Amino acid sequence: MYSPVVKSIKEAYRNGEEDEALKPLVAVDGQGRPVGRIQEGDSVVFYDIRGEREVELTRSLTEKNFPHFPVKENLNIRMATMIEYHSSLNVKVAFPPEEVVQGTLPEVLSRASLGVLKVAESEKAVHIGYFMNGKREKPFPGEDRIIIPSPPGISSYTQKPQMSAAQVSREIAAQLKNPDYSLIIANLANVDVVGHSENKSAVLQAVQSVDKELGKIVEECRKEGITLVVTADHGTVEEWRYPDGTINTGHTKNPVPFILADFSSGEKERREIRKKGELSDVAPTILHLLGVESPPEMKGQSLLPDSFSEPCPKVLLLILDGWGLREASQGNLIKEGKTPSFEKLWSRFPHASLQASGEAVGMPADTVGNSEAGHLHLGAGRRILLDRVKIDKAVQDGSFFSNPAFIWAMDSCLQNQKALHLLGIVSHYSSHGTIRHLFALLQMAQKRGMENVFIHSLIGRRGEKPESGANYISKIEKKCRELSLGQVVTVMGRYWALDREENWDRVKKAYQALVYGKGTLFKLGGEKT
After folding, report:
1. What CA–CA distance (Å, rounded) separates 194 from 191?
2. pTM
3. β partners of residue 259
4. β-pairing, 276-278 with 351-355?
5. Contact in structure between 24 and 34 (CB atoms under 8 Å)
């Protein structure tokens, strides 16, 4: 028998809603009053671990004089975040950055007084900026960025699968002649962004849009004598279906391509390179091409032979976001799409396959890649242990349960008779977090004698089976019964809460559900109202 909240989720499914954009569901009591809202003086633990999509909602809950929509005055909550989402936020960070990632590709070129230009549409701005610079917020000296807005005013990029790829490629072409830059880094976002949908036609259009722009970029590089390196950060739609036929909207474990098309001095299609590697080998390869020595921090290995000693005057590193390699055709939308530009490049120029998942990108073995880890490793040139692994180890060795930020949030509730709110993604394995960290927080709250604990769940089926959100909420409610602690009082699709492009209307909807109880109501212990 389903609980009231699970019944409400399943009813939303029947009405055509899906996990990613599920409109907020809000718990009420027998009199129809919202239950478990975030109130003045309460504590909130936002347990997501990726960060760039969590900033806007965190700002709305914590920032004084928040300007983007009306918020409750004097909310004055105590908020802890699992990791540092942004250094400016008024929160306590449970697992702060242990070190600044030194010696990244942009930093090395900056030290060598070689200019770097980054070009992407806004959906991937944070990846080529923050993550590729080793989680540094500011550009390095000599580093410029051109960010092209992703298509505005649409609820899903499936409505415009070509996104802003044509504008990105035009900007690349315009900048290839610019003598200020020795390296141009560009990202074509379509395959990853649209690939998280179940719209096959849109995904195929996204693949073909990227291939079309790739062809244009190749010809511009040939005309200008530019060395072109093509790679990706992780796979997605090359394995768009699970073996049982259901759609896989998430990332994959497959390798990604690396192609070296050197047009810098005549035709060099047959230049030899190593055939296999990992993402951390890209940065030292770029430095090798430019004749710049890799720093000691870069443990990755150049894919070029040691005998290569002809520095290229300019390199374009083109990231086909989400473009994975997989031989099988079943469920492979890259193979199903028309990709003559990629196929010609792959067949004619030296190429390699790069590991872009699991331990190769600092994550647990046999786990899928993601854009954060991919761009981080493309820039760092070495394996970086990701936050998820550090937090998992803290749970295993018990140090998680004595974390000062969590203790601060929980003990202030006990001292002031306030409620604890646990907010975050609900998934077995999402790049933004895991249900296991929520369970660890619930266990800690129980050990510290908490009573009023409310859970606000964000769902979304990237990489999950259809209608998985309802199953995860059932698992949370089961854990709450086992611990005799905690109550699910809000459920919403991650679309509303995890924005990163200042779609403040979405964030407002999430905020109003969490604080004011606005949404579709379900009655605790009774039927949906």
Report:
1. 6
2. 0.80
3. 230, 351
4. parallel
5. no
